[in-house]
Amino acid sequence: MSRQISFIALFLSCIVASVAHAESGDPVALIRLPGGGIKVESMGGLSVVLARDVQSAAVTLPSVILVHSAADQKVDSPHVLLQIDGQLNLNHVWDRMPNADTPTWKPATENVQPSDNAFLVQGASEFGLIEVDGVRIAIVSSAKLGKERLDKIRHCDALVAFGTEAQETLKLAKQAAAKRLVVGPEMKIDGATTWAGNTMPLSAKATQEAEVQVITLGEESVVLSNEITDLIERKEASCRASQKVFAELSVQQMNFRPANGSHTPRWNAEHMMGRELLFFSQIFHAKDATIPVIDLNPKQMPPDYQAKHPDWTGAEEARQMERVTAYVRRYSYLLKDMPLDEKAPSSRWAPRGLLKQMDRHYSEHTANVKLKFKLPGWPQK
Q1: What domain range includes position 186?
Q2: DinB-like domain: which residues (predicted)?
């Protein structure tokens, strides 16, 4: 069941110009849910769910929170649910700041300074636009938009239509010069490409084609073999065990430099996360160029190392590891039917070897970090 926190119901758009927005180019996932809802999921670990039937969406995602208010509030879930065809105008930032335990839903004002991975949300009945990581996703439940709204969604990365007529929707997508028109299986448009699975990546770095790409996105997810699913789950379990260790460490402990010249705990966290992200993004990019290769690896030798986020707590570094785990799981459908013991595309790793190595990698580096707790000078907090 969804937990209600106060009043809203949908629609999203580009945020006021006074609020800065991310241009990271990180991939954003557009996911079709059972019952026809849409989930927009970012690398930052937050998501926005849009549905006409909010009760069905709440059953599909038990941790989702149905937002009912435009007020400033903390939300103890990474998922917010917005009801399509709602009546309240929105102009909001959905964000979790580094080191914050919970995300916040805030009206966009000049005083709001979003993080790099914030969702920027604005809109009204029958129209809206979500912006995150430089990706702009327009949502419409009417194919007839006035000039002001049409101008707002021009060159959006995806136009998602709910309950509109096929030809009118295609006409709107062409008028808006949308990169992609995303429809459900119930909408028949000549020349549409049926997507494999229910998850489609979007990126601000994707090129604009001469014609609108029409994509039919269904509700059925790609099912992986039991063998690769087991390998993924073992890797995830090892990462979760590592997260538990790091989540207890303070900023001072994460930055502890042992007298023996070995790495700080923070380097180990960045290294484990960075290796997994790089290796899997290389494979995913080879399968779908919309997903960029992402290299966040720190310098290898201690004298050369500069912390990416020296002010992050261990809990935030643990969340970063979890975000990468979620990223790999999100796009793991690209591993389907890939030979487990042959080198993956654009990788020196075979999938089985990579998953087993990442399992060991988390365990080995976490064990090394735990040894530092007994070294001279280890901060008590």
Answers
A1: 3-216
A2: 240-343
Residues 37 and 183 in one domain: yes
Q: How does pLDDT run across 276-297, given as a tens digit for each residue? A: 999 999 999 999 999 999 999 9
231 and 212 co-located in one domain: no
* For residues 7-20, average pLDDT: 35
DSSP string, 327-347: HHHHTGGGGTT--TTSPPTT-
How many structural domains are present in the chain? 2
Contact 70, 106 (CB under 8 A): no
Evaluate whether residue 366 is within a structural domain. Answer: yes
Residue 221: inside a domain: no
The DSSP output letter for 116 is: T
Distance from C-alpha of 251 to C-alpha of 148, rounded to nearest angstrom = 47
Helix (H) or strand (E) holding 317: helix 314-330
246 in the same domain as 211? no
Q: Are residues 19 and 105 in the same domain?
A: yes
181-190: long-range pairs with CB below 8 Å, 24+: 181/212, 181/213, 181/214, 181/215, 182/30, 182/158, 182/215, 182/217, 183/214, 183/215, 183/216, 183/217, 184/32, 184/36, 184/216, 184/217, 184/218, 185/216, 185/218, 187/161, 187/216, 189/214, 189/216
5/290: higher pLDDT = 290
